[in-house]
Specification:
Number of domains: 1
Structural class: mainly alpha
Helix content: over 70%
Strand order of the largest sheet: 1-2
Radius of gyration: 19 Å
Distance between the termini: 21 Å
Strand content: 5-15%
Largest sheet: 2 strands, antiparallel
Number of helices: 5
Number of strands: 2
């Protein structure tokens, strides 16, 4: 499972970068990110600020999660330990954090694709893409249910 989660995390990095570059390339000078109604845009941001804020949030979240992973890897374990001293529990939590990073990156990618479609002048797909933005929080909630399952699993 750890190899699959690592691969999923790598794919989510690449998907985020693709979404960021695609949306940045298709947006004109101003980015609309808030709407009062279906046609009335209420908030704008410069294209370059949008790019750097998106990249900054991505780097910040992944740096924090990477710090947690590296810190957990340094904890000494044993087979009969309790809590993070238990080897299996520690590995499960590290895998969960890696997967959480992948799910969050996927969520960010969906948001970027949506913002790119909304700001694309000739796109009618932006309102159908809105459904996929709700997929991100759903995946995050499901990932927390997986954490609850990990925490409730009996350990020897």
């Amino acid at each position: 499972m750890d190899k699959f989660i690592g691969f999923f995390r790598l794919i989510s990095f690449l998907l985020f970068l693709a979404a960021l570059l695609w949306s940045y390339a298709n947006i004109s000078g101003q980015v609309t990110y808030s709407f009062n109604s279906l046609s009335d845009a209420s908030a704008y941001m410069d294209k370059d600020i949008y790019f750097f804020v998106s990249l900054g949030v991505f780097l910040f979240v992944n740096t924090i999660l990477g710090f947690f992973i590296q810190t957990l890897k340094k904890v000494r374990t044993q087979e009969g330990g309790k809590g993070f001293k238990n080897y299996d529990f520690k590995q499960d939590i590290i895998t969960w954090i890696k997967g959480f990073a992948a799910v969050v990156n996927l969520f960010f990618s969906l948001i970027l694709f949506y913002l790119g479609l909304v700001n694309l002048a000739e796109s009618d797909q932006s309102f159908t893409m809105g459904f996929y933005v709700y997929l991100g929080p759903l995946l995050i909630v499901l990932w927390f249910f997986y954490l609850a399952w990990i925490l409730g699993k009996p350990r020897t």
